[in-house]
Amino acid sequence: METNHAKVAVAEFVATFTLIFIGAGAVVLNAAGNLDLTGVALAHGLALAIVVSITMHISGGMVNPAVAISLWVTGKVPSARAVVCIVAELVGAIAGAFLLKALIPRELFDVGNGGVPALGDSTAAGKGILIEATTTFFLVFAVFGTAVDDRGPFSKTAGLTIGLVIAFDMMAFAPYTGAAMNPARWFGPAVATGDYADSLVWIVGPIAGGIIAGVLYWAMFLRDHEPATP
């Protein structure tokens, strides 16, 4: 894996740019009645599976500040690398959201509110945080079990495993919170639309869930084993 921070930043920028451009674009199509929930989930899951597979050997294929923070908390990435990845992810998310805004018809973009994750009508913010924390727990647990733990049989196909977790989480919980599981997935479209409502749902929820998953996996399965750096 690359140690050059510039190369790491470019990889995380491109990967997150792709996820937001494709994912938010799918949400906009869903709001316009042109794509169902399964299509939205698969768009996110396939996009993530591909970009993780492409960037795993360069940057770790994090594509998510919650993943970067969980790896940092458990000592799997140094502080400087974590900061580089998080900044690149957030900038990539903004760029992806603004390109989407520039390319699709404005009325379509507005109907889907630019793909910004939103709470369902009956979902309170506190419940939304718990949903995002739980779904991100599954995601980060999968990251540790495939991309971090070198004893797992699926390290070479970790991107597919991680992408499938995104897909099944979205199929089950997107109607309640958007199932972002990623602060960058919320942040880019939020900046592009100026809609920062209920922001803590997509900041606190994923980060908390990711830290819990990472610490649990490390404490139970990695403490006495030297894992491969993701």
What does this structure look like?
By secondary structure, the protein is mainly alpha-helical. It is built from 9 helices and no strands. It has helices at residues 5-31, 37-59, 65-73, 79-103, 106-111, 125-148, 158-177, 183-193, 199-222. α3 (65-73) packs parallel to α9 and α8 runs antiparallel to α9 (199-222). It is globular, with a radius of gyration of 16 Å. It starts with a helix and ends in an 8-residue tail after the last helix. The mean pLDDT is 95.
In brief:
73% of the residues lie in helices and 0% in strands. With 230 residues, the chain is mostly helical.
Architecture blueprint of SSEs:
Elements: H1 5-31, H2 37-59, H3 65-73, H4 79-103, H5 106-111, H6 125-148, H7 158-177, H8 183-193, H9 199-222
Helix pairs in contact: 1-2, 1-4, 1-8, 2-7, 3-4, 3-9, 4-8, 6-7, 6-9, 8-9
Separation, N- and C-terminal Cα atoms:
8 Å
Mean pLDDT: 95
Poorly predicted regions are none
Strand-residue proportion: under 5%
Q: What's the alpha carbon Rg, rounded to whole Å?
A: 16 Å
Q: What is the overall shape?
A: globular
Q: How can the largest sheet be summarized?
A: none
Approximate helicity band: over 70%
The SSE string, one letter per element, is HHHHHHHHH
Total strands: 0
Number of helices: 9
Structural class of the helices, strands and pairings?
Answer: mainly alpha
